[in-house]
Amino acid sequence: MEGTSKLQEVEKPKPYKVNRYEPKPESALDDAIPEYMNLFGMVFSMCGLMLKIKWCSWCAIFCALISFAHSRSSEDNKQVWSSFMLSISSVVMTYLQNPAPLITPW
Predict the structure, then answer these.
(1) SS3 assignment, position 36
(2) Average pLDDT in the 74-87 region?
């Protein structure tokens, strides 16, 4: 009987206990790579669609893939998927308008 009363005393919350602040480690900080790659992918997609530049469209797919690979599973993936679909449509539209192979700019 005496053992269970001690256990109940230990489990009670202690309002006088102070928890010390511990900063997050550097690795736990928010990673901005998926957001930047998503933005770059959309910019490259728009450049590919509007200016009919094929390498911009391919860069958009590359950026969308990087953004998808670095995104967390807890985040909403609608924006990543829309960027990915925009980049694919950019490649398809540039090749439908001009089916010639990609000419490198250098």
Answers:
(1) helix
(2) 85
